[in-house]
Amino acid sequence: MKVTLIAGSNRANATSTNLLKYMETLLKADRVSVSFIDLSELPLPLFTPDNWDFHPNVRHMLGAIADGDGLILATPEYHGSISGALKNALDYVQADQVAGKPVLSVSSAGGPLGVSSLTHLQTIVRNLHGINCPEWISIGYGSGGLGPDGAPLDEGVRERVLSAVNRFVETTRKLTAAAAAANG
């Protein structure tokens, strides 16, 4: 099984990216192959539907999404929505690259929670025909912060992240097995 993670901040050392890196360690510990796309290190040109001859960074990201069995998207919450960097990246994605794949949404916010960004992200996933996981993760100032490895310092938040990742992996494995059985 392979999962693609996209860190949707273009800020170095972003909280959402650090949390996603911690989630990457959880996935690898569960023997899940991971492709990590960090939009702060892989800048993408501004999407325009007038140009379908994509930049190599865009092709790399789209290939990782197409190759993944599942997708985890992380974003900071800016003005009640997802980051412009992640929105731009998702504008390049076609529905057939995400259709039927489970997607876990992750957000970090300057306030208590990033629920608005998660709601917007799940709307985009629905429009790409992805399967929104019933779990989502939102951390904010009240969550106790992150350690140097990106792990939440608050035990309850850390357990919530672990539970969400485990349910995402379980869902992805079941859907991957069902798709393989249906395809013979």
TrEMBL record:
Class of this enzyme:
oxidoreductase
NADPH-dependent FMN reductase-like domain: which residues? 1-141
Keywords (alphabetical) are: Oxidoreductase
Name the Enzyme Commission number(s) assigned to this protein.
Answer: 1.-.-.-
* InterPro entries associated with the record: Flavoprotein-like_sf, FMN_Rdtase-like_dom, NAD(P)H-dep_reductase
The GO terms describing molecular function are: oxidoreductase activity
UniProt record similarity statement? Belongs to the azoreductase type 2 family.
* UniProt protein name: NADPH-dependent FMN reductase
| Protein source organism | Paenibacillus thailandensis
